[in-house]
Design a protein that fits this description.
Layout (H helix, E strand, L loop, with lengths): L11 H11 L6 E2 L16 H13 L12 H12 L4 H4 L3 E6 L1 H16 L4 E6 L5 H6 L4 E6 L1 E2 L4 E2 L1 H8 L7 E5 L12 H14 L2 E6 L8 H4 L1 H9 L3 E6 L12 E6 L3 H18 L6 H10 L2 H29 L7 H4 L4 E3 L4 H11 L1 E2 L5 E3 L8 H11 L1
Parallel strand pairs: 1-12, 3-4, 3-7, 7-8, 8-9
Antiparallel strand pairs: 2-10, 5-6, 9-10, 11-13
Helix pairs in contact: 2-12, 2-13, 3-12, 5-11, 8-10, 13-16, 15-16
Bound molecules: (2S)-2-hydroxybutanedioic acid (LMR).
Length: 393
């Protein structure tokens, strides 16, 4: 039966990661896949994570199953991190959080859950969006529609076009929004725009679904969640997918969470039971280790403080690099949008041929769309990268 299958190309982001690894040039620069890097070009293990792992190794007493929802302690900690401590939605029992294998696991389980609610569900995603959103959501059988998000000329959010397009959504349609640090553009909604889109969602009876993959890497943990929290405070139902890959640096531990908010506590109990049954039929239970690390950190005030200060340092560093990158490119044109955008990514707005020349002639790797991972820069390589970009323009 397998002989009928045709070979597929690799996912472009993962393919680029491999090509970079295979490139023997010592001065190559990786601005491709979205992982944070320090000044030495390493993706470090945070000290708070190291310490939590040390404590886990010393104190762990069992490898017994965790159950489809994962660890209750982790789920409670993630609810507070995402929605804010003391949020009425948590107090009133309108919120359930389940531990998932990464943000991808949360996105896919949400999609399977939505299909269970209504097999004809349509989900609206931004153009552009993270490429993996399409197979993760569409692969569960949801219909994908796109709303314009980024103006390709200004590389800023075209909010009027976004709202106009979403006017075409029908009651019950799902709107996927990036909580902060829009991937791939770095162009975020401001709070006023979150309020306006919330009003539209309420008026049209849409279901918001927020992907929060970069909380803490834009403007800080609280500010990055402000739009999501406003939305959650206004709507009867909502979904959110969260990832600890970036803000805890737990990429390979596959640590995420799915947040389910319902109109009442009893609706939420029934909905959660359905969600858990969806999970059971897919992967049964999430892996424990990454979530145990997060639970250990968030359950200890010293470790929490240490983690927040490390994350704050990463966030500051990205902001610094954004500023320095925009300044270094200034002689070649107006790249000031890079300093205004947030998170790891921005589009340079250059052609695929220019991207190829940067890769082949200069060993500088970015996605064909010209998405760069700003966190892959450092003060040492920045002049080299800026010179190379100027030379291909
Ligand atoms: C990215 O967009 O580069 C990251 O989210 C990593 C991935 O899995 O694509």
């Amino acid at each position: 039966m397998f002989e009928t299958l045709k070979p597929l190309p690799q996912d472009p982001i993962l393919q680029l990661m491999q090509t970079f690894r295979d490139d023997p040039r010592p001065d190559k620069v990786d601005l491709g896949i979205g992982v944070y890097k320090d000044d030495a070009g390493n993706t470090p293990i945070m000290a708070a994570v190291h310490e939590a792992e040390r404590r886990l190794l010393a104190g762990e007493t069992t490898k017994g199953y965790v159950g489809p929802a994962g660890s209750a302690g982790y789920n409670d900690a993630m609810a507070s991190l995402i929605l804010g401590t003391d949020n009425a939605l948590i107090r009133d029992g309108r919120t359930a959080v389940v531990q998932t294998p990464g943000g991808c696991g949360a996105l896919r389980m949400a999609a399977e859950f939505l299909r269970l609610c209504n097999p004809a569900t349509t989900v609206w995603v931004s153009t552009p969006t993270w490429a993996n959103h399409l197979p993760l959501l569409g692969g569960a059988g949801l219909t994908i529609r796109e709303y314009p998000y980024l103006n390709r000329d200004t590389l800023q959010v075209d909010f009027a076009a976004m709202l106009e397009s979403l006017e075409g959504a029908k009651p019950g349609d799902v709107v996927l929004l990036h909580g902060c640090c829009h991937n791939p553009s770095g162009a975020d909604l401001d709070l006023e725009q979150w309020q306006d889109v919330t009003t539209l969602i309420q008026r049209k009876g849409l279901l918001p679904f927020v992907d929060m993959a970069y909380q803490g890497l834009g403007d800080g943990l609280e500010k990055d969640a402000a739009g999501l929290r406003h939305l959650a405070s206004q709507v009867p139902e909502m979904l959110a997918a969260a990832s600890c890959s970036k803000n805890f640096g737990l990429y390979r531990e596959r640590t995420g969470a799915l947040v389910l908010i319902s109109e009442t506590a009893s609706i939420n109990q029934a909905a959660t039971s359905q969600l858990l049954s969806v999970i059971r039929s897919h992967y049964s239970m999430p892996p424990a280790h990454g979530a145990a690390i997060v639970e250990t950190i968030l359950g200890d005030s010293d470790l929490t403080q240490q983690w927040q200060s490390e994350l704050g340092g990463m966030c500051e560093r990205i902001l610094h690099l954004r500023q320095a990158f925009a300044e270094a490119l200034a002689p070649a044109g107006d790249f000031s949008f890079i300093a205004r955008q947030r998170g790891m990514f921005s589009f340079l707005g250059i052609t695929p041929e220019q991207v190829r020349a940067l890769r082949e002639d200069h060993g500088i790797y970015m996605l064909d769309s010209s998405r760069v991972n700003v966190a892959g820069l450092n003060d040492k390589v920045l002049p080299q990268v800026a010179d190379a970009i100027r030379s291909v323009l």
